[in-house]
Amino acid sequence: MIETYGLTTNEVQTIFNHVETIPIFEELCTNRNAKVVFKWLYNNLYGNVFKKDKEFNSVLNDNFANGKLLGEIIDLVEEEKLLSPNNAKQIVYAIVDEKYS
């Protein structure tokens, strides 16, 4: 992952602490910068989930459609410039708070 995605050792360790999310991370990296994906998936999303004492995989799978919704948010910020990073974080935080069945 260090060579493939240009990540640091610490970033790779974080990913492997959540080994079950590796397929989602790799899918999100398709046509996206891996560092940006890492920031959104593990810093913004996981950080917020952890603060709220929720289960990361459940939130990622249920609230973010296995990461697809997060990918769309990343694209709106990074590619289309339709959302500011701060507004996107607020959306991510609101989605974390939701419970979908």
What features would you describe in this structure?
This protein is mainly alpha-helical and 101 residues long. The chain has one domain (2-97). It contains seven helices and no strands. It has helices at residues 2-5, 9-17, 22-28, 34-51, 56-63, 68-78, 85-97. Helix 4 (34-51) crosses helix 7. The longest helix has 18 residues, at 34-51.
Number of strands: 0
Question: Helix- and strand-based class?
Answer: mainly alpha
Instruction: Let me know the largest β-sheet.
Output: none
Distance between the termini: 34 Å
Strand content: under 5%
Per DSSP, the total helix count is 7
Shape by Cα distribution: globular
Low-confidence stretches: none
- Helix-strand pattern: HHHHHHH
Radius of gyration: 13 Å
Number of domains: 1
Mean pLDDT: 93
Roughly what percent helix?
55-70%
Question: What descriptive keywords fit this protein?
Answer:
mainly alpha; 7 helices; globular; single chain; 101 residues
Please give the structural blueprint:
Blueprint: H1 2-5, H2 9-17, H3 22-28, H4 34-51, H5 56-63, H6 68-78, H7 85-97
Can you describe this structure in just a few lines?
The chain has 101 residues and is mainly α. It contains seven helices and no strands. The mean pLDDT is 93.
